[in-house]
Amino acid sequence: MATRPSARWRARVESEATELAAGTRAPSDAFLSDLFPESLLAATDGALQAFESEVDPLRNQDDEQVFEVIKRVVLALNEINEDHDGAGFETEEREELCLYIDQVLTGHGIDVPALAARRGISRTEITDDWRDW
Question: Is residue 131 part of a domain?
Fold first, then answer.
């Protein structure tokens, strides 16, 4: 199973906090708790967990049902990003989220390149119709 990006972000925040507490990182070099506030981490984690649950029964479903699940997670992530003043997901986070969506689908037996090809797009474009972040 793919690791949720929000879990990696949380680990980075915790590592930075440990370094601050130990005095091995200067406060002026600490920014991760601002970049990844708990509200962003918790909301993103919840959206991705819901996505995982919805993907599980999709193995033998038609493309439209798969794209509906993709659409729901992307719209949820759009809302989370908006709730964080449009700055919740920077370029690196966007790429991680898209890769995660692809990996979860693939891990549940969905042939993402074929799914995308049937829609006339590349696998990297499966979120583009709805993605604002």
Answer: no
Is 79 among the domain residues? yes
Number of domains in the chain: 1
Q: Quick count: other Cβ atoms within 10 Å of Cβ 83?
A: 12
Give CA–CA dist 17/39, Å, rounded: 17
**Can you give the pLDDT of all 133 residues of the chain as single tens digits?**
799 999 999 999 999 999 999 999 999 999 999 999 999 999 999 999 999 999 988 877 799 999 999 999 999 999 999 999 988 999 999 999 999 999 999 999 999 999 999 999 999 999 999 999 9
Its domain, for residue 26, covers 5-125
